[in-house]
Write a structure and sequence with these properties.
There is one protein chain. This protein has helices at 2-20, 23-35, 43-67, 91-94, 102-118, 188-194, 202-206, 218-230, 241-246; strands at 73-74, 85-87, 99-100, 124-126, 150-154, 157-159, 164-166, 214-216, 234-238, 255-256, 268-273. The protein has a four-stranded mixed β-sheet. Strands 7-6-8 form a three-stranded antiparallel β-sheet. The radius of gyration is 21 Å and the shape is globular. It is built from nine helices and eleven strands. A hairpin with a 4-residue loop joins strand 6 and strand 7. The protein has two domains: 2-69, no CATH class; 78-273, Muramoyl-pentapeptide Carboxypeptidase, domain 2. It has 274 residues and is an alpha+beta fold.
């Protein structure tokens, strides 16, 4: 049992580190604090509670301050009139996956303010960004997102019930609800599948979407992408080729195809600053 328990703890430590960057370290600090304390009834429960409290305190109060030493800052955890951007899910923030450099922060803020001018009820919705520390720590499962310069954004869809544009549609942490090619459009997902890129369409096979209720808001997404592409801070944007053509963005050279080695980008926008 001790051996099994040891390996389970190592696995938990590894998962915390992979998905939150600092969770494993916080868990070790909590374990060290409890190590020499007298064993009592309910010790495991109390140890779990102290870890949870320590983790939340670190995420909200300590890590944002330390991240600034690395040139990173957290994106807002909720939208406001001054900062109209928010995560698709708070899990992104609790896992420390919402950190960006100053240029990317300014770009996101400007785009949120631009959306607010179109409709005061709108705000920019972000998915994964970067971890707070280091320039080579991978943000699993992304191929990049390790230097503070990358950010994924949610597409807008039109809710036929409320008759409003929204990002509040069912998806896995904001990913997986794709806008597939129409007849006559370049079917890059099919091309990548035929080339053996097994991961390219994987998430779309898992996520149950409802395209009848939530239709792709071509007009609003085109405005968002055009403003992103025209901003001098933007280096490049990744979306699927069929969306670039459908939205009339062919002249935007910094909107590109990301390659079959990645995953589909018709469920989100990937933006990268200089």
């Amino acid at each position: 049992m001790r051996t099994i328990n040891f390996f389970l703890q190592i696995l938990f430590l590894g998962l915390l580190t992979v998905f939150t960057q600092v969770g494993g370290l916080i868990w070790l600090l909590n374990r060290a604090w409890w190590y020499r304390r007298k064993k009592t009834k309910g010790r495991v429960v109390y140890r779990g509670l102290t870890f949870g409290l320590l983790y939340v305190f670190a995420v909200l109060c300590v890590i944002p301050l330390l991240a600034r030493l690395n040139g990173r800052m957290p994106l807002p955890m909720g939208a406001s009139n001054q900062k109209p951007l928010a995560p698709k899910t708070l899990l992104t923030c609790l896992a420390n996956r919402h950190y960006v450099n100053a240029n990317l922060y300014q770009l996101a803020l400007k785009q949120g303010q631009a959306l607010q001018k179109i409709d005061p009820a709108l705000h920019l919705v972000y998915l994964d960004a970067n971890f707070p520390f280091g320039n080579h720590f991978p943000l699993f499962p992304h191929r990049s997102h390790n230097d503070g310069k990358k950010l994924d954004l949610a597409f807008f869809r039109y809710d036929t019930r409320s008759q409003k544009s929204t990002t509040d549609y069912p998806s896995f942490l904001g990913y997986g609800f794709s806008e597939p090619p129409l007849a006559g459009e370049l079917d890059q997902p099919d091309i990548c599948r035929k080339r053996g890129a097994w991961q390219y369409n994987l998430l779309q096979e898992w996520v149950r979407s409802n395209p009848q209720r939530y239709t792709f808001d071509a007009e609003l997404n085109a405005q968002l992408l055009q403003k992103l592409a025209e901003d001098p801070l933007t280096e490049k944007i990744f979306i699927e080729p069929h969306l670039k053509g459908r939205l009339g963005l062919g002249r935007m050279d910094n909107i590109r195809f990301h390659g079959c080695q990645a995953v589909r980008h018709d469920d989100h926008i990937h933006v990268q600053v200089k």
